[in-house]
Design a protein that fits this description.
heterodimer; A: alpha/beta; five-stranded parallel sheet; about 45% helix; about 15% strand; B: mainly alpha; two-stranded antiparallel ribbon; 2 strands; about 5% strand; globular
Chain lengths: ~375, ~350
Amino acid sequence: MEYQYDLFISFKNSTEKGLTVDREVAKQFFLALQENQFKVFFSNATLTDKGIANYMLEIQNALEGAKAILVVYSDINYISQGWVAQEWMTFLNILMKDPQRNIYIYSIKKDTAGLPPFLRPYECFTDFQPAILHLTNGLHAQEHTRSSSEKTKREFLNAYWGLFGNTDIHDFINATMIDPFYNHQVYCQKSKYLSGGDEEEYVSSLKNIVEDTDNPLAAYLLSRYYRDAKHLDLKYSKQLSQNAYISFMEKVALCPEGGEIALVILSDEKEYDGAFYMCDIIHDVLDAYDVKSSIWIVNPNSDFDMEFNDYRRIVLFWSDVCLDYKDDFVDTVKNLGDKVLIALNSFGSSALPGDLRNFEIFDNNNTDITKICRTLLS
Amino acid sequence: MIYQKEIGKALAWLFETQNKENFGWSWIRDISPNEQNTAEVVYACTLFENLLTPDQKQLINEATKKWLLMPQKHAVLTIDWAWVGMALSAYYDKYDSYQPDFDREFVKKDICTCVETILSLQNADGGWGDYKYDMSTAFRTSISVIFLEMQPHVKGDVIDKSVERAIKWLLTLQNADGGFGCIPLSNMTKKVMSYYAGVEQSIVEKQYKSSIAVTGYVLWALASCNRFMYGREIESAANYLKNGEYSGGYEIFFEVGVRRGTLFTFRHFGAAWMGIGLLLSGKSQFTEPEIVALLKHFLSLQDPINGGFKCNDTSEVYTWSNCNSLMFFKTAIEKLENMAGLDYTDIIVDYLLKR
């Protein structure tokens, strides 16, 4: 593909205090790379040169026509929200459809700790000269050594959950996985079924997975099949959910504690339900981006006294519409403030205590699960 | 049973759309369930409990356990309490057929909770809004009356007095044309009108003008009390419904109300409430033209693919439109079954002569 620009430089131009240092550093990158005969989009220069009135459209066109983006920042808040965040998120969407492109990050203050997880997989520089050297070499030669049919866990989950708007999973189902993972087979079977596969084949494949590996996700999907009026067997469905709970707890026991995200399942029954399902798959996505998360299963009517202050985000997965909770549970959640996201297992927020209805609330469906993932990774 | 095939398909649609996580229903497929829609479905299914398979009964038991028992966990608005109460009352009567794993006395206790709560939510004017002190409306008041009148085992002075005050308030809604409006015109004070700022004038006017949905609903409430006591009012309301012009279809009433100072909207299935009101008030028989027209109308609204009943030609199938249709069919079938033998003979002879 022919690219209009070799590099798009994204940076925060100004704040209410005036022009930013980011702008100066971005300009240095622009001049240095231009000297090396690269076609660089630097909004201050390019838009002035072209005298373009339709700023937004030109930015969008430049992003679509750029082979790579360089995100320059001195303060993590400058790139986690506003225009800069929009630019790199837009570029990520474009990159998902064209893996020849690339993302580079430059931290002026050498502080990479709070980098949004979506950006973490990409190269981040902290010194100017090595960055220039690397960019000049890198922009010339971006060869992909692996074959196009090979996929990584991250690519697979991006496609499965539509994290970048691309929900075409078809190419991923039969691809060779570089790093196969625990739930991969379950996702593949479900995708095949949803794209017109045979129901009996799907159910039998889930049964095989459950028999072979005790996979809780497969057991959960199978248990919901037996809750349908056409195939109803509530006793067996319950048994599957209980077995899935046991195997999920074994999985949780192997997860290290700590990390930056707390995934907290609120439940008073030993059954793997929709709350566990959401938690399980969000854990998969976070893991694909090397974001460490810990899973807690908590009964809010007896033991919600954990310390969650050290986590960047806390997701509460509310399992049951009838769940009881202690009075001080609501206060504890309120004190955690904006860090908290609430995911409800298929019931409306009116079932929540009034004080918790103002939090960000998500439902148990694919769109909302994707939204939670994007929130945690952005 | 007449219409058994159609009713069976409509019931099957309900179970297809039931949430597999918590066994509840929403107003449409794939949306988080809520107690009011779940209660409506349990109520409608229980009307046809004899047609449910053992599996479907199990699913109703799960829905009841999760959403209707301990109603204080979910019910907030008057309309929630009344529908949960109605569903539990119907379920209580069919308890032996459902054979759930919880005690019948639990159901009874929760019905009493619904009764007590509904009584506590009644406004000073005798009507009900969604919360106490919200402006009273015809729908909330009628459904409360209908539910309270379903309670022969807890019936007492308190209920009688409450219903008497409610009916008195409902009758103030009757307009000169015999039909009922949703709220009295006198309630449209400056303060109330300020809430409606931005709402089209014609929609605001429809709230107090007569409509078939409100009239049918109020008729149902009046008939559930004592249809002879309010004979004159019932007669003129029935005439309003019978003399309406329906060549363009039956109205879906778009209620715009005020709940705790903010507007809410709610759709009501005019044809269903009209049919139920006319039949239960005894002002129409199964064979009369207005009922035959309604029956044909409902049958035309059954989705040929999924079997659910829509509310008009172009709509999707909603749980409420499906359940309201089932309620109408139940009322019509009961009317047919209770017809005198002589009437039946006339119909059959008439039919045979026309062949």
